[in-house]
Design goal:
The chain has 156 residues and is of the alpha+beta class. It is built from one helix and eight strands, in the order αββββββββ.
């Protein structure tokens, strides 16, 4: 009888531990300073030159979820070697991106403030409003101002 009670106690403890972790993860995903409307997969269709991306131009895809982003893009030769990942926060219409991983080592750990506008399934981003390197140097003046437009990717 004592053994059966011990097993029931352990199972009950594991059940409550599992529930506690699930609730904690759920509350973490609902807190933070980022709108869930940004969550999803995005494809860049426009970048800086005012033209819509065509099949011959470099492509870029981004994934966004609850304060985390990851992107992969082609360079001017078509190689898939333009990668970035990190965290972000939103304040008004400014997105503060912290690069945690990138294929550009000189950008590792930098923070980039980007002005954005979300209209339905279209995300417009004006880059480099402010850029601070990992060492704390403000390099905003050296960064090109660029505009990009992404559309939300849909399931087929």
């Amino acid at each position: 009888m004592k053994s059966r009670s011990s097993i029931q106690f352990v199972l009950l403890f594991l059940f409550f531990a599992f529930i506690n972790e699930a609730v904690a993860q759920s509350s973490r995903s609902k807190t933070g300073n980022y709108p869930s409307t940004l969550n999803g997969a995005w494809q860049r269709v426009y970048y800086n030159n005012g033209k819509t991306t065509t099949s011959g131009e470099p492509k870029e895809f981004a994934l966004v979820h609850d304060g985390f982003f990851s992107s992969i893009g082609q360079d001017s030769t078509g190689r898939w070697n333009n990668t970035h990942a990190g965290s972000f926060e939103i304040s008004g219409n400014l997105m503060k991106n912290k690069l945690l991983y990138t294929s550009h080592l000189d950008r590792m750990g930098s923070t980039n403030w980007v002005e954005y506008e979300l209209k339905g399934d279209t995300l417009i981003m004006n880059w480099s409003k402010k850029v601070i390197t990992a060492s704390g140097q403000d390099i905003t003046a050296r960064m090109p101002k660029a505009k990009s437009k992404f559309i939300r990717m849909k399931n087929p």
